[in-house]
Fold these 3 entries.
Entry 1:
Amino acid sequence: MTAPYSYRADPSVPPFDDSAPVAVMDADCAICSWGARMIHRLDRKGTTRICPIQSPLGTALLTHYGLNPQDPASWLFLDQGQAHKDFEAVLHAGRRFGGWGHLTLTLRLIPRPIRDWLYIRLARNRYRLFGRADLCALPDPALQRRILR
């Protein structure tokens, strides 16, 4: 496990306000755009920001955590400087948001190797299954303010 806030010491990661959680996701993916809308609805405090993988910050964060930004099948959720990846990121975010977000915790009933296998299959085929959408073009102004560019 990487030390909390380890990206702060990485000169390739641009400085950013990390006082609140950040979800790093594919801005071209329809399911990720849906996920961004769900974060916006479930995060009642309105603090979680969304960082497109395609941005310089998103690319640098993925690289810092050993993920390939050219193959953005991964989902990264930074909370209190700690990185949560892939399916575990989804579960952590759901737990953090509470309310309806707690429904994601039922997915813990699925053994982790199967969850990881399902996540990889979904992530690798997301464009074919769900199509493309432009996260940065979502019309909700409040959601737009959450996007780190």
Entry 2:
Amino acid sequence: MAKFLSSEWAQEVTDTLNNHAGFKSAIGNADLGVAFNITGGPDGDVPYYLKSSGGNTTLSLGTLADADVTINTNYETATSISKGDLNVQTAFMTGKLKVGGNLAKLMMHQSAINQWSAAVKDQAIEY
């Protein structure tokens, strides 16, 4: 069981996304970079990113300089989304997620975001 926002968690998510037919179909060969900044976690603030290009997707801890979209939220919200207790759209509409950058590009890949949630919903994660 990987700890949420750890390098082991990031590797498990990467492997899961690259082996999930629904996500692979939804993301296709899109070039997409999404940076996440999670604040107030038990280990402090944690940046991570999702980068997809040429049919391969990587989720890694750290920053992504050329991100298409940046998402900022706190640990409580990120945990609730990860557990499936809060969906991304509700978090955004209620101001719990702050999104910047190319929102049109993010919306073009909404089905991939939904498939991401479906792909990782059964992962065992330590919070």
Entry 3:
Amino acid sequence: MSKEMPFLVYCIEEYKAEKNLTGKEVISLFRQYAVCEYIKSFYEALHTTGKNYIVEDIDLYIRSRA
């Protein structure tokens, strides 16, 4: 397993909890906007931040692609 995978799962779970979404809804949203690829690409920068920053960053990324 890559070092990014546990972090990706963490991001999904935190986003799900913060936005009060189901896992299925988060996965659908992340697939639609390629969020998983974004998280993997920027793992080195993102994994050192807190959950609030991560959720906010994901929101900004989705808005920029919408």
